[in-house]
Amino acid sequence: MTETTASRSTTGAVSPVDQRLPLLQLLLVGFQHVLLMYGGAVAVPLIVGQAAGLSREEIAFLINADLLVAGIATLIQSLGIGPVGIRMPVMMGASFAAVGSMVAMTGMPGVGMQGIFGATIAAGFFGMLIAPFMSRIVRFFPPLVTGTVITSIGMCLFPVAINWAGGGKGEANFGAPEFLALSSLVLIVILLINRFLKGFWVNISVLIGMGLGYAIAACVGMVDLGGMEQRPWFEVVTPMHFGPPEFHLAPVLAMCLVVVIIFVESTGMFLALGKLTDTEITPKRLRGGLLCDAGASFIAGFLNTFTHSSFAQNIGLVQMTGVRSRYVTVAAALFLIALSLLPKAAFLVASIPPAVLGGAGLAMFGMVAASGIRILQEADIGDRRNQLLVAVSIGMGMVPVVRPDFFAHLPHWLEPITHSGIAMTAIWAIALNLLFNIIGENRSHLCGSHGH
User: Which domain holds residue 90?
Assistant: First the structure.
């Protein structure tokens, strides 16, 4: 089936993906996509910025840079430019998969933000090189491996949420009742919305919880907006704001591994979206989507932000609303680009108290882990060897989370891998899957051919 026939439905009418909607509906549904992914999009620069000890002004700049790249990448993914872009309703944003590795890099001597951006550029370039061959690599990433890794991503981020909930890392009054009450309130609001409301409200439950928590924190004097007057109303993101990117071997290798994980996640998401929109995901379409993921990461490093990927929660929104047009995500992309030019809006987001983020973080990171467990259900988890693979991979991933000094005596250049629970889980899951399922499978094939 050719690309043109693939984009037509069986009746010969225009595919739902190519439908043009009335302007008001287009803008409203587009803005809904922005609301849904905004919390996730700004969480990555918030986590990395705080771990790197950046000022609120610098974190606000990181958020603006992230929104700009997310907007550009979403536009290219939805509309397509030449061979790049899947031309479907896909929202892009900074990927959680890289957070563990990047937080580890902030603690490495001589790496800093410039080293993180250098690793992001190198990983994006690596992604563009391997995108055409990804269909061959996918067999090393069955649901057993990807489910284990995604579960680990959620689990490795829990300490971040718990630190936030207690008032923030380094907070002298950590665990004070007011911090615990605020984070609990945000979490309870999210849970109640998911229990008693439906549809759109459920999709923006995290945003509502954080908004209410922020309002209460502001009323009791827990929000500090000092310095906001100095922020301009309008500002264009400048490339290499933190200095020229630097390239260090271990961070680059760790981020290249992250890009492979992102590719596997995105492939699964694109296939799911194809089913929802009655669109055949041809190898050409898949390659275009993965090239956009990698290209966005490559550009991101120059524009002061991080590896980008497709956002799964927005695919859920496509399913819920039934609006399958890619022009909806084009509208959403334009909203993101507009927001990136408004530093005061980003400063407001950067001033959210850690305790508010903590309540939302527990729910958000828990959902990441839960989606990994859901993917694991597609694997033969009744097989004892597969259970052992999940157990050992996640166990090894927890080592740097529970005891960050566990590998302290190993060479420093290994730190982005040994300090990242996600990278550790991925390496062990791939290796054990090779040992248990692929090498043995090939050997039994050989035995079978000798028998004939």
Answer: 19-441
